[in-house]
């Protein structure tokens, strides 16, 4: 995992998921979790981008 990915996972979780996986169900889940609360979105981004 690069430094850029770690920074994006913290600041903009859906963007980091999009850069790794593209448009799909994983991105939709990341967006929903980030909108629900920021921390679940960050945790999800770290899990799917490892």
TrEMBL record:
PANTHER family assigned: HYDROPHOBIC PROTEIN RCI2 LOW TEMPERATURE AND SALT RESPONSIVE PROTEIN LTI6 -RELATED, UPF0057 MEMBRANE PROTEIN ZK632.10-RELATED
Could you identify this protein by its name?
YqaE/Pmp3 family membrane protein
Note the superkingdom of the native organism: Bacteria
Regions that span the bilayer: 26-48
InterPro entries per the UniProt record, alphabetical: PMP3
Tagged with keyword Chaperone: no
Keywords attached to this Swiss-Prot or TrEMBL record, sorted alphabetically, are: Membrane, Transmembrane, Transmembrane helix
Q: Which family does it belong to?
A: Belongs to the UPF0057 (PMP3) family.
Q: Which organism is it from?
A: Sediminicola luteus
> Which locations, inside or outside the cell, does it occupy?
Membrane
